Amino acid sequence: MEIHEYNKIISFVRNDRGLTQACMKQLVIKFPQYSCDTLYSILSLEYQKRMKCNYTKTQANKNKYWVLYQKAVQEGDSPGIIIRIAEHFDVAPCLIAKLILTRHFDTSEELETKEQGANVNIYLRNTSLLSDMDLAYEVFLCTLYDNIYSPLTEVMKASLGQQYEVKLHKEVVKHGLAFRDEEHLRRCGYDKTPDCKLEVPVAVDGFIINWIESKALFGDEDAHKEYMKNQYLSYWNRFGPGLVIYWFGYLQTIIEPNDKRFIVRDGFPENIIHMPSDIFNISNKNQAK
């Protein structure tokens, strides 16, 4: 994606102050040339950056949200109280819900209840565990209206990542490439492993590929730098040059034309050149000597 197109999408997201669900619907209408997966990935990455600035787990904020919630309940406000608080303070509903849940358990005089509330994520995933039915419904609504931090969203993201790993493996098999997956590499003692380690390297656009990494997201500069630091450079050190696939596209500015460590694509390449078998026969003969 060209930088000017990306900036248009980012500008729209940054100027929006509603729920991310509503923002996503508007993005699909305003930028129909891009897939829903691409737009959602850009929205998700940008919104998480915003939350790092807007959301802080301070006691003051926890008390403030709790007081506002209690006041609304006492005044008989309609359901969706936490969602409205989240909209007002421009913080994800599930993040507000976590703080309110923490404060809710803090007010309990029973030691057992306090210990149970130590991990509020349990109650976010299963609101039926909450004895306060009104609070349970409020938190449940947050999980429905928050498409970035909801437990359901996390499950969907993990499932999507697995789906594209399976797609990668199918493409590798379809092109007749011998490979080892992450599970096999971990059994061999590797701590950091790509999705596919090719047994026999191939060439793509004149670049030798030893491994392939699948990412079911949009590759912006921040995400790419983070993955490069924590994953790609480790793969390069262990296995040599490789290929990174951002299935939902990537920003053109992350490409370094002279980079010899890995290349970036938004799909599985079709112009694969297999290494001549006689190269390996010669190599094996030399090793035998």
From TrEMBL:
Keywords associated with the record: Cytoplasm, Nucleus
Alphabetized Pfam families for the sequence: TPD
Subcellular location field: Cytoplasm; Nucleus
Name of the protein: CDAN1-interacting nuclease 1
Keyword Secreted on entry: no
